[in-house]
Structure formats: structure tokens, C-alpha cells
User: What shape does this take?
Amino acid sequence: STDAFEGPEKLLEIWFAPDEHCLPYGMPESGLREIPRQVWEQVLDVVQCKVLSVVSSSKMDAFVLSE
Amino acid sequence: SSLFVFANKLILKTCGTTTLLVGLGPLLDAVSEYCGFPKDKQPWRVFYSRRSFMFPDRQKHPHKSWKDEVACLDNKFANGSSYVIGDVQKDHWYLYLAGPSDDCTFPRRTVPGSTLGASGSVSNGTSITNGHNLSADAPFDDETLEILMTDLNPVHANQFCSDRIPGVESNNMSSVGAPADDEDPGHDQGNIVTKLTGIDQIYPTLKQTVDSFCFTPCGYSCNGVVNQGNYFTIHVTPEQGFSYASFETNVPAAKYGMSNADVIEKVVNIFRPGRFSTTFMRNRNEDDESDPDSAFSFRCLPSKLNGYQRTERILYELGDYSLVFITFEANR
Assistant: This one.
């Protein structure tokens, strides 16, 4: 099919510290979670994804994205 | 596609013709601007992986080839290593790893409760350890299980087509369903599919919130937040001829009385793929060093699965991580 969709994903995982209690000095206590949603949306625009929804817990923010 | 953001790490998984690595620069810029992470310092760990693409010619640069992807990553990170795992004539898997560079030495904040332990004097609950490398032997736990499935059974794949989904009113919403951001019916349909397919029963005893979305006319994505700090994510492209589904999690199954074999069997039974590969990657600990075969290689993944035959099994030791890659084919 000429409309075939590429299912297999690219997967990037970046760790800035081994755990949340050991962030590099200078990082806020909330670490990467300090980055506002609108900034993630700007990054994801470059990736060509849109945020569909977000679920947050005490430890993480989970974004479901388009594509 | 999915993005998971923790205080210390992020995971971005995107499909289709997305340009994930083009976003690497803006992503690192954002971390620098909002989190104060120096632009000239290397992150503690970088992992990039993907299965072989089905339609590589339709990808956009740098995702048309593994060589270009590695060049892009090498442009951002030092000490990178790249691997091609599996039979290159069949389903194979690519992995790029980068650890701390030699100059990755910077003061770190350590708070009570850290698995690394505090060093230096504690003031207001926080200590600062000057000049310590975030070393590779730090006692932390990390494991990722990924299942990549192709040639889905059509009956099972059709569960992820929006015109096959029962009306919202006729179903009780999943008890684990997440509230939607907007009025798009894809959220409600996603919740229904999550329940009907048994996705909400992969980790039945754990506290979880599953945020699901069904695309029109077909396709499905969900993120599961498990016990606050772990995740699983599923993405499905059900179209016949190029059907595909993926499952990924960092839930430590053994910690919750499950095995990876249990999880794999549940996931495979949802999709009944004709073929699938599984990767399990975990940092090694002292138990593995004393008895590597029983602790990691053999116990973690199944050698048999009802209705399938295992076609490949590859073990890797990659720095302080171990990796198992296995492939199965259905006995159709």
C-alpha cells in the first residue's frame, strides 16, 4: 500500500543522573519536570508530534503523542 | 508516540515519519535553559534504539539509515557505541549507547533517601558533593523490557480499529482510565479498547493509571503509569500487510511477584503476532556477577511460549548493562 504507515518507533532515553535524589548541582529539585509543557510542545513540534494528553504522578509526567 | 519525563531522565518514543533526532538539539537546549544542565556536559547515560524500519525510504533525514542516525548522535555525544543485533536479513534491532564522557565531572546534589548515599555535610536536607563523577558503578536499578510484534492476527488487530469499537455508552469505562485533555472521542474509545483487550490486566495487582487514545480510522496508543514511578507504553498499527504493535516497560516484574515471561505471554496473547522480538536490558548487580547465567540470562526471558518457536537468542554484555535479544515465530 502507498499509504502504509511505519509502525516501528525510534526510542531515545537520556539520563542526567542515576536517580531523582542525585541530580547535578544547579538543577532544580524537580529536575527535568521543571520544563514547562509549552516548551515540550515546542520540542515536539520539531519532532513532528503533538501532545494528546498528559498524566502525572509524584514521580513522572507521561505524554501520549500523535503519530 | 510517547514522552515520559522524570526528574532525572526522559524517554521519547516516536513512530511514523517523525524526526526524533532532529529534536535532540532543542531538547538539550531546554534542559540547559530550564534545568541548568551545562550545555558542554554530557548526560549520564544515553540510549537510542529502534527495530529495522519497514519503509526506510519514507523516513526523513537522519532516519533513513542507521549510519546517519549514529552520525547525528555522535555529533551530540562523546564515547558512543553502536550495535546491530539479530539477523540483518530478518527482524533486527539497533542500539546506540553513550555513557559519561571523561570530563563528565560536576558537583551533584544529594538528598536524603538517595540510593547513592550522601557525602559531605547535610544542610537543609541537601548536601553537595564536589567534583564527583556520576560513576558507572552507582547502585541503581534499571531495566527495560520491549516487545516488538509484526504480522498481527487480523482478529486481534481489528480490536484497534475505531469502527469496531462499541459505543462509549454501552461500556463501563476502565477503572484505570485517565481523564481526557479534550473532547476528542479517541480518549473514550482508547479507554474502551484498554479494557476490552485486557491491556489493563497486564499488571492487574498494581496501582495504575492508563492514558489511552484510539486514532481514526485505526491505531492505538497508551501510557500506563504504574505505582507512581514506573511506566508501560503500547502502540499499535493494525493495518493488514504492515501491522505492528510495540510494548515497552520499566516495571520490575520480579519485584512484584511476576516474571518477564508472564508479561510477555500476556502481551503476546493480546496481539497474537506472527513474529516478535523481545529485548530485555538491565544494569548488572552483584547477584549477576556471582551467577550470571541463573540471575540474568536464563531466568529473565522465556525459552518456550505456547504457539511459538524461538528462532534467535543473543546475549550481550554492554558496559554495566546486560542485554538479551530473542525472536519468536508463530506455529501457524
Notes: Chain A has a mean pLDDT of 94. Strands of chain A lie at 10-15, 51-56, 60-65. The radius of gyration of chain A is 15 Å.
